[in-house]
Amino acid sequence: MNYKKLDTKDVNHLIELLGKERVYTGENISEDYSHDELGGISAMPEVMVEVLSTKDVSDVMKYAYDNNIPVVIRGSGTGLVGASVPIHGGIMINMTRMTKIRELDENNLTLTVEPGVMLMDIAKYVEERDFFYPPDPGEKTATIAGNINTNAGGMRAVKYGVTRDYVRGLEVVLPNGDIMKVGGKVVKNSSGYSVKDMICGSEGTLAVVTEATLKLLPLPKKVISLLIPFPNLDMAISTVPKIIKSKAAPTAIEFMQREVILAAEKFLDKKFPDNSSDAYLLLSFDGNSTEEVERNYDTVAKLCLESGALDVFISDTDERKQSIWSARGAFLEAVKASTSEIDECDVCVPRDKVADFINYTNDLQKQFDVRIRSFGHAGDGNLHVYVLRDDMNDEEWAKKLGDVFECMYERARELEGVVSGEHGIGFAKRPYMFEQYDESYMTLLKNIKLAFDPKNILNPGKVCQ
């Protein structure tokens, strides 16, 4: 791909469009913009610009398209697969100053926001007004456009679904600078192909999200959590299909192992309610009455005890819930803090294959003499498995990581799983996606990309390229 390298004329034109204070070059660009959260790949943009409006984005994209300059979109940088890394240089568009909440429509139960609004701010804003935005990824400082571009799921997906299920409408800027609206406030839409749903999960390769209209729900009145220890992971995971079939409708079903809990305790300097068992299920239930919630969690508690659970800890106060869920939310940071570097395998397998896959990763620890830590969403089969570098040198780390990942992704395919459940493909996981799907499927994805972006300037080298 022969892209134009930016020169003084290009920089000056961007300054004319946006103002000198919003155009950064050279040493004025922070190194933070060269990588995402895991930092496995690094590259600096030639120019980083801050945008405040859809028109700003459109003007920059039109100039880039006319001059064959690659563009990468950047939110909070909390991704884990290098999707926001400018591997071809070019222009980085920083969306984090577009933070307006534009409208709460109480009649249609929608919230319209700019792309840089953080997930935690959306949750706080709507809950203060007695509404509920269900998607709940672990990283609450992620921007909503980042969530949309990875179709983020999170812990409540087992009951409520993923981000795509809550995106009613989008305003986007196409690679050529055209502004387009897709979807809207309507509940049903069978008017042609669902372009909105293509953009959800596209990792910034098809269009730039500049506004999102989100579906809301009434806020549940009561939330209770259960922490349930089991003698081993097999017993814990084998209970999950029984919970699903019980129709008790838990909001979340998470699994965790003792090693990760101990790491979180050390990281937070705070004790978990229990750390004596090898495996745990963490569940939450919500509803509009205490009776409804208690009926559901009582059904599940009895079912778990009958299936070999050692105990059931009920967290029905804000303080108790906070002690459990703050530890769960800190798992990734705790694992990172316990070693020199990590990389993640974000596979999703059928629910009844979770224990099979995690047990396989335990075997890989012995086979390759490497530490592997895991936790994830037992309710939907989405696993977060981390390989820890510890004291390996560069050559040993690269070789061992590649070998372990190849084994894990192959095992996921054997179990009829997929490469990524919610963190995306980006740059880092592309080889495994190409192994997952046949040529006709990958050709279809490439043709969709070309239909949106015939010059291939928007986030090139990611996902299907």
Explain this structure.
The chain has 465 residues and is of the alpha+beta class. Helix content is 36%, strand content 20%. The longest helix has 21 residues, at 394-414. The mean pLDDT is 95.
- Computed over alpha carbons, the radius of gyration is 23 Å
Instruction: State the major sheet.
Output: 7 strands, antiparallel
Number of strands: 18
What low-confidence regions span 5 or more consecutive residues with pLDDT below 50?
A: none
Number of helices: 15
What strand order characterises the main sheet? Answer: 15-12-14-13-17-18-16
**Average predicted local confidence, pLDDT:** 95
Quote the distance from N terminus to C terminus.
Answer: 11 Å
How much strand content do the residues show? Answer: 15-25%
Oligomeric form: single chain
Q: Residue share in helices?
A: 25-40%
